[in-house]
Structures are given as structure tokens and as C-alpha cells.
Automatic annotation (TrEMBL):
InterPro entries, per database record: Glyas_Bleomycin-R_OHBP_Dase (IPR029068), Glyas_Fos-R_dOase_dom (IPR004360), VOC_core (IPR037523)
Name recorded for this polypeptide: Glyoxalase
Pfam families (UniProt xref): Glyoxalase
PROSITE patterns per the UniProt record, alphabetical: VOC
Gene3D superfamilies: 2,3-Dihydroxybiphenyl 1,2-Dioxygenase, domain 1 (3.10.180.10)
CDD domains referenced in this protein's UniProt entry, alphabetically: VOC_like
Phylogenetic classification of the source organism: Bacteria, Pseudomonadati, Pseudomonadota, Gammaproteobacteria, Vibrionales
Top-level taxon: Bacteria
Domain VOC: 4-134
Length: 144
């Protein structure tokens, strides 16, 4: 499957706190930046964090949750589909760095079409992130 990179911009309460999270915890390469935003390479996609003073120093973004496979999935969320080895390495690194998971790494829809490894966690502002993987991305990504 050949995909073009996506671009997404999200609000953050504190630029340096979020910059450290995306750079040091997720190992995202940093691109252009200004006093109020920073570009990151999120597995080949462009993620831009923008300082939002309306959130406040201790504030978090508002989220909703929906039930998926008996788990409470935060909405909205952004994420990336990774090759399984990359997903496993990221899960191990996040555990090593004591990241608190909203949904611990696990395989959902076992034995069903669309079986996938997934995990959810929040950035320091409360933006929900999902990383998932499939054994055969081309076949399983949109399988019903």
C-alpha cells in the first residue's frame, strides 16, 4: 500500500512540555518551529503542535469516550498504523518511559477480520494518541 503522508495540527497547553514529549518519548524528529508551534515527523507524517493559551497551564483538551471491544476509546484521537515490529518497539519504549496508557497495548478483534494490535495514551495536554498494527496491513486495514 502506498500512502501519502497526512498533516495534522493539535493544540497544546505548554509548547516546551509537549516538544519534549514528542521529541524525547515518541522520538519524533523536529522540523520547523516558531514561538507558538513546532513541526514533527511522526512516522513519516507531519504533526504540528500549536500552543493554545486558552487551555491554560494545568488544562486538558476535552475528550469523549466510546466503547470499542469492551474498552473506553478516547475521541477525538490521532494515530498511526505501524508495521508490527515498529509497534512492538514503541510499546516497549513507552513502558520503559513509564507512559500511562489509557488502553494498554493488546490485540483487539482476535481471530476476526481486522484483528489489530493497539494502544492508547495521552500527550501532556491530554491529546489522545493511538498506535496500531496489523499482521498484514494491506489486507486487514479496511477489512470488514
Amino acid at each position: 500500500m502506498s500512502l501519502t503522508p497526512f498533516h495534522v495540527a493539535i493544540p497544546v497547553r505548554h509548547l516546551e512540555e509537549s516538544r519534549a514529549f514528542y521529541r524525547d518519548v515518541l522520538n519524533c524528529g523536529e522540523g520547523r518551529s516558531s514561538d507558538c508551534w513546532v513541526d514533527f515527523n511522526l512516522y513519516g507524517h507531519q504533526l504540528v503542535i500549536h500552543h493554545d493559551p486558552a487551555i491554560g497551564e494545568e488544562g486538558k483538551v476535552r475528550l469523549h469516550h466510546n466503547s470499542v471491544d469492551s474498552h473506553s476509546v478516547p475521541v477525538p484521537h490521532i494515530g498511526v498504523v505501524l508495521e508490527m515490529a515498529d509497534w512492538e518497539a514503541l510499546a516497549a519504549r513507552l513502558k520503559e518511559k513509564s507512559v500511562a496508557f489509557v488502553i494498554e497495548p493488546y490485540v483487539r478483534f482476535k481471530g476476526q477480520p481486522g484483528e489489530q494490535a493497539t494502544m492508547f495514551f495521552y500527550d501532556p495536554t491530554g491529546n489522545a494518541l493511538e498506535f496500531k498494527s496489523f499482521h498484514d496491513i494491506d489486507k486487514q486495514l479496511f477489512e470488514t
